[in-house]
From TrEMBL:
Highest taxon listed in the record's lineage: Bacteria
Compositionally biased residues, Basic and acidic residues: 578-594
Protein name: Glutathione-regulated potassium-efflux system protein KefB
Source organism of the structure: Xanthobacter flavus
Lineage: Bacteria, Pseudomonadati, Pseudomonadota, Alphaproteobacteria, Hyphomicrobiales
Cellular compartment(s): Endomembrane system
Family annotation (Pfam families): Na_H_Exchanger, TrkA_N
Length: 613
């Protein structure tokens, strides 16, 4: 095998092993896998095995960012994106302008950079790492939260701003003013960008769904995977040819397919590639660190990284607080957006090529950007771990005034289960008092004319204030098993009068509730599953009466099994759901008796005759 092929396999093996080790070590110490990828990238880079050219690896690994943005687009819908316009252009503009201005002033007055160099440096450092921020916020499951949506909006605006920023750099170069008077190139580039967007929009609306339908009918799963990758890479490549961000093209393609019936298939096909390529992307960032530059300028780089962290975090924090985001979430967003982005590795060399930055300035700034990429995930992990210790719990709103509350039934919990229970009672004109501790749920119900009292049903004083002692029935419909058990115990020990009807979560919970002495318990999925089974039987040709009889039998068997389990343990009663015994058909009687051919056969026939007799 040629030496180059040996090197290729050795490099691939090193990256795969490094990815596995990075995840295991990072999870073990409680950090994000990103931290592990970055540190492992440093280890296998210039100071370690030097297994590959970092620039080549980084170029390939950027496909991970492209696929990440495609999946983010799949999660959104065009209508949702339009509703985020205020965040994209309001918060995005505020963050980019304020952060760029702060960095530019620091570079000009503090570091002695020229005006053009200060502007380029400020713009490059103000743009955040899309892959890092989305991965950090996504790992916490916060992308759909208010601060997660605003974080994504800022990142999306930064991607949109890439083209104008790239066009601005040549204008800042010595003699670049002449380009202003020749707008032909700018108009051509703008036209290409609009044309690329139009092609993606038309293809997404009119071509891709028919294509995926044809592939789905063919049953060739590998063709669907290839088509998914073709869509991502095609959109990214088209936007890059037009001079725009490749990730932006992938996001646009994902957005157009977000309402497609093939959305989940596409997501499943792309996600595996996305995870692997993102891991390599973060390792490549660690590999790009110029250790010689870092070792010679450690004090300056440490101070610079801290300055970037503080300035960027403070600006983002203030922008988020101005938009009424909670302090803790604002801090998380500010740290997630703190790291410089991959755009810095494009803008700094472009500034050098246009004579705006000197070589030593470019090397220092690239090292600084890479260090912030390492520092950002570390700080985010620290904030996520220690913030809850220093953040006082949100003050619990006082319980409502129950003076006007009266009724014969108290419903505790107004989630999906409690809503249906309440609907049945109210439809029969039963007087009901409903309490819940979810403020957003209470406000939402109020918009539909349903009055719910705020109160924590696990507190005895709240139950008494809600009139629990005068109720005929208390329906416990909360969506937490421990809370349900606690309410049962409180009512049984301190109130005692009302009958207790309780939502159960599973068979084990039902057994617990029976032991606690409730009057009625029902597993939340039992009756819906029985109804589903009845309709399925009818669809198979079973008459409605026969289906209902069979379901009644299953229901009775389930009740009997639960009683046996209460007596003999969880594994008792397993035969309650055995299929009905099949009575074998009688065998056909032989027309004449067998004739033995030897003495042994004679003995057998003789014994059979005696046995049957």
């Amino acid at each position: 095998m040629p030496v180059d092929e040996h090197a290729l396999f050795a490099g691939a093996l090193a990256f795969m092993c490094a990815a596995v080790i990075a995840v295991l070590v990072a999870k073990r110490i409680g950090f994000s896998p990103i931290v592990g990828y970055l540190l492992v990238g440093i280890a296998i880079g210039p100071i370690g095995f030097n297994v590959a050219d970092p620039s080549v690896v980084h170029t390939v690994a950027e496909l991970g960012v492209v696929m990440l943005l495609f999946l983010v687009g799949l999660e959104l819908k065009p209508s949702h994106l339009l509703s985020m316009g205020h965040y994209i252009f309001g918060l995005g503009t505020a963050q980019l302008v304020l952060t760029s201005l702060a960095f530019a002033l620091l570079a000009y007055f503090g570091l002695g950079f020229g005006v053009a160099a200060a502007v380029v440096s400020g713009l490059a450092l103000s743009v955040s790492g899309t892959a890092i921020a989305l991965q950090l916020v996504g790992e916490r499951g916060d992308l759909a939260s208010p601060y997660g949506q605003r974080t994504f909006s800022i990142l999306l605006f930064q991607d949109i701003a890439v083209v104008p920023l790239l066009a601005l750099v040549p204008l800042l170069a010595p003699g670049g003013e002449s380009e202003i008077h020749d707008p032909k190139g700018t108009l051509i580039q703008a036209g290409m960008a609009v044309g690329a967007i139009a092609v993606i929009v038309v293809a997404g609306r009119y071509l891709l769904n028919p294509l995926f339908r044809v592939l789905a009918r063919s049953g060739a799963r590998e063709a669907m995977t290839a088509a998914a990758l073709m869509v991502v890479l095609g959109a990214a490549g088209l936007m890059e040819i037009a001079g725009m961000s490749a990730a932006m093209g992938a996001f646009l393609a994902g957005l157009l397919l977000s309402e497609s019936t093939f959305r989940h298939e596409l997501e499943a096909n792309v996600d595996a590639f996305r995870g692997l390529l993102l891991a390599i992307f973060f390792m490549s960032i660690g590999m790009t660190l110029n250790i010689d530059v870092i070792l010679h300028h450690i004090p300056r780089l440490v101070v610079g990284a801290l300055a970037v962290a503080v300035i960027k975090s403070v600006v983002v924090y203030l922008v988020f607080r101005a938009d009424n985001i909670a302090p803790g979430d604002s801090l998380r967003a500010s740290v997630a957006l703190m790291a410089a982005g991959e755009f810095a590795f494009v803008l700094f060399p472009l500034g050098l090529a246009n004579g705006i930055l000197r070589t030593e300035q470019t090397d220092l700034l690239i090292a600084l950007a890479a260090l912030t990429m390492v520092l950002g995930p570390l700080l985010f992990a620290g904030v996520s771990r220690y913030l809850p210790r220093f953040t006082p719990p949100a003050p619990e709103p006082p319980a409502d005034d129950f003076t006007d509350a009266d009724g014969s039934v108290l419903v505790i919990g107004f989630g999906r289960f409690g809503q249906i229970v309440s609907q049945c009672l109210l439809a029969q004109d039963v007087s009901v008092t409903i309490i819940d501790k979810d403020v957003e749920m209470i406000q939402s119900a109020g918009r539909f004319g349903v009055h719910i009292y705020y109160g924590d049903g696990t507190r005895l004083d709240v139950l008494r204030a809600a009139g629990a002692e005068t109720m005929e029935v208390i329906c416990i419909c909360v969506d937490n098993k421990e809370d349900a058990n606690r309410i049962v115990e409180i009512v049984r020990t301190s109130i005692q009068g009302p009958r207790l009807f309780v939502r159960s979560f599973d068979r084990v919970h039902s057994m617990e509730l029976v032991r606690l002495g409730v009057d009625f318990e029902l597993r939340e999925t039992l009756e819906s599953a029985l109804s589903f089974g009845a309709r399925t039987l009818e669809a198979l040709g079973v008459s409605e009466s026969a289906a209902e009889a069979r379901i009644a039998d299953v229901r009775e068997r389930d009740r009997a099994r639960l009683e046996r389990q209460m007596q003999d343990g969880l594994f008792a009663g397993g035969d309650a759901f055995s299929r009905p015994k099949v009575e074998p058909e009688p065998l056909t009687e032989p027309e004449r008796r067998a004739r033995p051919l030897n003495p042994e056969a004679q003995d057998i026939l003789t014994h059979e005759t005696e046995f049957s007799g």
